[in-house]
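Hi,

I'm pasting everything inline rather than attaching a file, because the server keeps stripping attachments. The sequence lines come first, and each chain or strand is labelled.
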Amino acid sequence: MPKVVDHDQRRVELVEATWRIIARHGIEGATMRDIAAEAGFANGALKPYFPSKDDLLAFAFSHVFSQTGRRMTDATVGRSGLSALRAYCLEILPLDDIRVSEARIVIPFWQKALTDPAKAELHAAAMLKWRDTMCEHLREAGAAGELGTATPHEDLAGLLMNFVLGTQITAVLSPIENSADRLVAQLDACLGLIADGS
Amino acid sequence: MPKVVDHDQRRVELVEATWRIIARHGIEGATMRDIAAEAGFANGALKPYFPSKDDLLAFAFSHVFSQTGRRMTDATVGRSGLSALRAYCLEILPLDDIRVSEARIVIPFWQKALTDPAKAELHAAAMLKWRDTMCEHLREAGAAGELGTATPHEDLAGLLMNFVLGTQITAVLSPIENSADRLVAQLDACLGLIADGS
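And the predicted assembly:
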């Protein structure tokens, strides 16, 4: 009987191995051989899943985006307005080890996207979705009388988007001033100002 | 008579050539040979200035930071409080071609800093200086009665820092939603909320 292999499961194992190797050696230092070894694969066994390192990276990046997206959707269930907006943003902030690891993957991804149109498109689509969801929660907040400002929702969402993206950098590269506590305080400061200027 | 060479000037020419090559080919695709050709140098002529690509990149990055720093200091001359804070932040926002190019250099720099302690230290020092200056202008604003919020200055400065760093990504990778007009509107929304919650 042939061995039954769960290919989707193996792909996810490879992505997780990829993260660990990138976190350890950087994206340039991550070789297919290292990733195979980390995932417990024989060297040639990666090829059927991912013919090139670039294919593997593209898959790893979309996995981070969809994982974050799933967490964000779960966190907002049963909420609306500013409460939903806060829960949504909290899932993007790099507040724990998993999310700091994600930030360590997203930074090299941005760098790749600068010269790779397919990766740039993947990023732009994910960012538009986040932004649209933030605008939607701002509209709910406005309808519920929760907003203390007449600033257009698009600019408030833009401010929040740029803030949460900036935290991906500072949580990794300026961690003292951007500990989990401080990032939450910064988010709450922003949402507090949007709510009632206090 | 030996040819007189202005070595500092040549270093800056090399840095500018480096920027153009990185913007065109990405940091991985930028070779010392391309950079030499772009700057009008013979291939071996770079070595006395920068023994390795890494030395050249480190110098190029500190040049971006000091150039931005100089612009920020110039922009705040004769200002204090929220007016100085706005002028300072405006110089970081990627509002024109030069500053969008700088963002294209800073993104690969972050990626390098993830696994290179010397680059991480250079970044952390520059970020602390920006942050301290923002805190100073917030203190001036507080003393002048310009602040409409009791949020600690450190958290407001952290919010602004993360916002301006996030714009380095979005101005390059989500340029439609983060055009110069929109970025200024987002900054003004944030400063308006800090001033009086309007």
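Chain A has a mean pLDDT of 89.

If the labels don't parse on your end, tell me and I'll reformat.
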